[in-house]
Amino acid sequence: MNGTLYIVATPIGNLEDITLRALRVMKEVDLIAAEDTRHTLKLLSHYGISKPLMSYWGEREKVRSSAVLGKLMEGRSVALVSDAGTPGISDPGAVLIKKALSEGINVVPIPGPSALTAALSISGLPTEEFTFIGFLPAKKAQRTKALKALSLEQRTLVFYEAPHRLLDALADMEETFGRRNIAVIKEITKLHEEALRGEVGQVRETLSRKTIAGEYVIVIEGGKRQTASIEEALDEVRSLIKKGMGRKEAAGKVAGQYGISKRELYQRSLIE
Predict the structure, then answer these.
(1) Domains along the chain?
(2) How far apart are CA 139 and CA 260, in angstroms?
(3) pLDDT digits (tens, 9 = 90+) for 148-196
(4) What pLDDT score does 1 carry?
(5) Burial readout 61-93 (b: 16 or more C-beta within 10 A, e: otherwise)
(6) What is the SS3 assignment for 242?
(7) Cα 140 to chain centroid, rounded
């Protein structure tokens, strides 16, 4: 009989942000698969937990996931943890989870801390609907392209960003999105936690005078529905297509932005 793979969320900073269930599971499993065993060992030592550890970070995930899978197929129970938050959510873990599911192994979530939801909860921006993007591309050209593809999105957008790219990313957001409201939250649950709110340009200016260090979550409001003639909407559809977006996707985005029939816009865009 196969074992069980537990996807265990761990603290994103403050070690007190661990659930009782997560602690129990890590005490009961046969093995803990960790993104970085040195990082996880600090958490385990804090709570007096001693278990065999196996690392799966970076490129090793592809190889080590097979080893962990072998343990599961032997009937062992495994807790999968990343350095912070939930494995597989902008963190390693997805490879092992996919392999385990393909082998019919029971995969059980042990929910807990999340930088995504923590940032949203204090952002002051709409949370009824949101789109999680994760990390933007590191290169400016690719990052700009990704942001332009999101320019018509009306839902709140959430990004993770590295400190050395933060100001550049915010500059590109200001150029693409204009004067939208934004919340940039630094080091969530940690000693130097800080949240800055305001328009993109204002927040970027404030951050340019500060020391940029640690982990950042960017929450930015979605675009507002505007009015446009069918010809203006068609121009936007054609512009998105030229930038590499598929015709149907482009028509859908623009139609949603302006409240125009997607079918009509798509049909009209076929006529050059």
Answers:
(1) 4-113 (3.40.1010.10), 120-220 (3.30.950.10), 230-269 (no CATH)
(2) 34
(3) 989 888 899 999 999 999 999 999 999 999 999 999 999 999 999 999 9
(4) 84
(5) beebbeebbebbeeebbbbbbbbbbbbbbbbbb
(6) helix
(7) 19
Q: Per-residue pLDDT tens for 48-62?
A: 999 999 988 766 777
> Please, are residues 116 and 89 in contact by the beta-carbon 8 Å criterion?
yes
Q: For residues 253 and 257, what is the distance between their CA atoms, to the nearest angstrom?
A: 6
d(CA 192, CA 214): 9
Residues 6+ apart with CB under 8 A from 84: 10, 11, 12, 13, 91, 113, 115
Which residues is 185 bridged to in the sheet?
Answer: 195, 217
CA distances in angstroms from 63 to 55, 69, 182, 246, listed in the order given = 10, 10, 40, 36
| Location of structure tokens 């072998």 | 70
The burial of 271, by beta-carbon neighbours within 10 Å (0-12 exposed, 13-18 middle, 19 or more buried), is given as exposed
Q: What is the pLDDT of residues 246-265, one digit of tens each?
A: 888 888 888 877 777 888 88
